[in-house]
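User: Can you write out an input/output pair for a complex, sequences first and structure second?

Assistant: Here is one pair. Inputs:
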Amino acid sequence: MTQQKQHSLLNRSAEACNMLKKHIDQNHIIRIISHNDADGLSAAGVVANAIKEEDGQFHLTIVPRLKMDVISDLRKDDYEIFMFLDMGSACLKPLSNFNSDIIIADHHQPADVEIGSNIIHVNPHLFGIDGSRELSGAGAAYLCIREMDKKHLAHLALAGAFGDMQCQDKFIGMNELILNDAIESGSVEIHEGLKIASKSSEPLYKSLAYTFKPELPGLTGDLEKSQSFLEKMGLSYGIKFTDLEGEEQDILKDELVKINPKILSDVYTIPKEISYLKDLEDFSDILDACGKNKKYGLGISLALGERGDALDGALKLREDYRLQLLKGMEWIRKEGAVKLDTIQYLYSEDEVIKKVMGTIASIGISVGIFDANKPVFGLSRLHRDIKISGRTTREMVERGVNLGKALSDCSSNFSGQGGGHDIAAGAMIPYSAKDEFLHLLDEQIAYQLNNS
Ligand SMILES: [Mn+2]
């Protein structure tokens, strides 16, 4: 059954690949639109690299959301083919009106409408495959170029899957198929190791405080606690992990495993990469930092293989982002979340906190700062609107919670917009509707829990 589903998805992707190849061969400029997160940037990187290798041309734009005005502007443009990556499945209707060919490679829940014959729609949900765990946007994009003999680009697809947190303990489903491609082509290697951040470039106490995936409750996001934790063990906190003696590394390993056994796990490396980018999750994080700081060009340059200044710029962005995360963590440790009956929320107008809202909402659950039994919604005020990032746990999803649906339904009541995955979703609503919206959302989640 699983194989049959995968087979159907691969067939659809092969159709997309043929269409893309046809346009490349006709010297058409491939008009690519992709999402601004690590997954979307990786997706763009996968496709752009493939087109470049085939001596084709592309024109790429990265956007935070596929808004109606973006779509109608694009429709006026004179391109023979558009590719929408990590987005597009929610906008099938307006895209069906285009006079050009369209490839959509997305993994978000698709709109339930008839689609135009101009569209090839590659989305795991269409084939009964879970798009929140088994395939990312970059993965869907990868499938669309795979048949052009591009298995050496599979690592970028996995960087996208990491960005969308699809690797819990291991890659499953289509992601596993892509991992096998990556291993087969030598673009990725796996070995067991300690999954702490920037092991070979940061002092140890920072490595621990910067480790967000997997989380280290008590240490993640807390420089002081990380420092005293190391001091108690008699380890010097100021040197890099890779500079510790083997015996010291083992002591640390044992202590960290007690905090979170997942810290000792598969480490994915890109053997041909330079040291800063060798760790696939680091690579994904650096793309993420480019996206969050709206330096999309920098992210794409990295994905296209540019180093030097582009790398320096990107590393600086990640460093800044880490400091923002630390500030956010300090804030949630002090303030906690406001609890309603079935949900809890965070609200901020602080510029730094707003930037890290989604991340601290999910980390706050996993390190135990928030009650894991109540979905967390981070609310960031943007002038007249509020941006909402919802996060919950796999357990709550199994009990019936679907944040994408809840945020889509509730926001439409206040002429807002929302959607996403069951476990993580977002919305935008008018500021004036804040309290009513939260009340409705609280009821909606209670309803989901009581009716599943
Ligand atoms: Mn995605």
